[in-house]
Amino acid sequence: MSTFSAPRGTFDMLPPYSETFNRIRIQFGLELRDAGYQYIETPAFEDTGLFVRGVGESTDVVSKEMYTFQDRSGRSLTLRPEGTAAVVRAVLQHNLQAQRHPVKLWYFGPYFRYEAVQAGRTRQFHQIGAEAIGSADPLVDVEMIALAVEGFQKLGVSDFRLLLNSLGCKECRPVYRAKLQEFLRGLDLDEETRRRVEINPLRVLDDKRPEVQAQLDDAPLITDNLCEACAEHHAFVTGMLDELKIAYEPAPKLVRGLDYYVRTIFEFVHDGLGAQSAIGGGGRYDGLAQDLGGPELPSVGWAVGIGRTMLAMEAEGLDIEMPADCDVYGVALGESARREIFKFVTALRLADIPADMAFDHKKLKGAMKAAAQSGARYAIVLGERDLAEGVAQLKDLATGEQTPVALDAVVDTLKEKLQ
Ligand code: AMP
């Protein structure tokens, strides 16, 4: 016990689950690299204005959930609540868009939102994200979706649904927005929701309360109100998903919590997770670079929540406990033997054979117990008498069978056995 525990809404990612956490990051990272996405890392905090301008003042994320603080010189800084605004900021700051189109990047890290804590919803959470910046090609929207699907599938996650919508663009959305507002103003809504109708009417469509949903059956839908260019874009995306046999559900009431989205938006939901069912989501944000003072750079991206992906794996009965990798465990009795064993362990590791040993002068019984716990297939047992005879005992931990092997043949023998 310590006097302190991790702050509310944060967590320690502990073994044996932490290996799975890492595996998810590596799995997505390798796959994105193979698709031309390069890794980017941005600071954990940014100027508050970046998120206010980028994510949008009227969003819950900005108005209620940011960890904003003043540093010692009085600057207003905010722990990043999401990844996209900072990645676009970095691209513009370093003029990466001058090198290639689209700039394809991926990232990983902790994000921070002061939210009501519940299962699957924490105040520090981890995301893997991908962004393709500088392309209006609807095929890039499809590439993004396909990569997220591939990532989940390769982890063994299959019971997820892809929800898909288009939010229109700066031409057709305002017209739709006004139409929706007119419809919503005629409904029986509480004061806060009525206020939302005026500020962010699309969010009302997303209201989970049954008394609100019951009134939305006849609401005008964005997908019936797209301009020709947006309708064409959307038809291309859905057509290509069909060709790839990637199943999706049209979700004309889907909106997302960040203001920058236009045209394609999507969310991956997992039905094994309860209320916080989104395991990832994203969309197109053609206007964001300009909002941040840059040139026009149509872009698309997504973020996948690692914690929720682990919950999804668990819900599907996948094994998320991953013990440390160990094939060979060294057990030494006596000081000279300890040194020899350590040399074996080092040589095995160099030969890519996972190896570990008992430290702290453990006695034989304790050391053999540690060997069993390690999950190793073989133990190298070395006593002073073995050493004098120039051999080590190689013990097969499954069968208990023990054979002496000449000291200079130990590493090669293990290499052969473990091939
Ligand atoms: P968003 O940026 O809100 O679209 O989030 C992208 C993904 O991050 C979501 O689909 C979740 O998987 C994950 N996520 C977002 N907020 C939280 C949170 N408070 N706790 C855990 N995961 C989260």
TrEMBL record:
One example GO MF annotation: ligase activity
EC class (word): ligase
Domain Aminoacyl-transfer RNA synthetases class-II family profile per the UniProt entry, residue ranges: 32-323
Enzyme Commission no: 6.1.1.21
Reactions listed under catalytic activity: tRNA(His) + L-histidine + ATP = L-histidyl-tRNA(His) + AMP + diphosphate + H(+)
Keywords: Aminoacyl-tRNA synthetase, ATP-binding, Cytoplasm, Ligase, Nucleotide-binding, Protein biosynthesis
Subcellular location: Cytoplasm
InterPro entries in the cross-refs: aa-tRNA-synth_II, aa-tRNA-synth_II/BPL/LPL, Anticodon-bd, Anticodon-bd_dom_sf, His-tRNA-ligase, HisRS-like_core, HisRS/HisZ, HisRS_anticodon
Source species, domain of life: Bacteria
Subunit-level organization: Homodimer.
Matches recorded under HAMAP family: His_tRNA_synth
NCBIfam families, sorted: hisS
PANTHER family: HISTIDINE--TRNA LIGASE, MITOCHONDRIAL-RELATED, HISTIDYL-TRNA SYNTHETASE
Similarity comment: family membership: Belongs to the class-II aminoacyl-tRNA synthetase family.
Protein's name according to its UniProt entry: Histidine--tRNA ligase
Species per Swiss-Prot/TrEMBL record: Yinghuangia aomiensis
